[in-house]
């Protein structure tokens, strides 16, 4: 909890100092208010945020890409998760697999959302789903079984779309479900 409080305080200080100047930084967009950012920090937690920042600062050139497409959070429940969206025929890159492994090891739930072609969906019956979503073992957790992830309610969940393919800084969109 101390790390989270310290992370929120660091965010407030940097926001108060840099937002008025509109300081340009790779991957940063001032489109989001401080409150939204504070909510994300509190939902992720200071430890997870420290791991994410360390990953970016130590190997930025190799880790600037591959971060999942979305972060969804439910502030009242203090739950956040990353979501990687894959279209038909698309698969995870090695960089994406590394990010997913890092996020999971930091205690941040990650999901892969597979978008299917409508024709494929119409021709097959929907799969039966029981219980919570499960984490598939990564290379570092192989043989340790499957861990259950908490469900995030879709009602009132904030969604940020991160377009890291933009030539400029990362373009982000916010949508409220």
From TrEMBL:
Question: What are the protein's UniProt keywords?
Answer: DNA damage, DNA repair, Hydrolase, Magnesium, Manganese, Metal-binding, Nuclease, Nucleus
The keyword Mitochondrion belongs to this UniProt entry's keyword annotation: no
Q: What is its main location?
A: nucleus
Question: Which co-factor is required?
Answer: Mg(2+); Mn(2+)
Tell where it localizes: Nucleus
What's the catalysed reaction?
Answer: Hydrolytically removes 5'-nucleotides successively from the 3'-hydroxy termini of 3'-hydroxy-terminated oligonucleotides
Q: Fetch the InterPro entries from UniProt.
A: Fan1-like, tRNA_endonuc-like_dom_sf, VRR_NUC
Instruction: Give the GO cellular component terms, alphabetically.
Output: nucleus
Q: Which GO terms describe its biological process?
A: interstrand cross-link repair
Q: What is this protein called?
A: Fanconi-associated nuclease
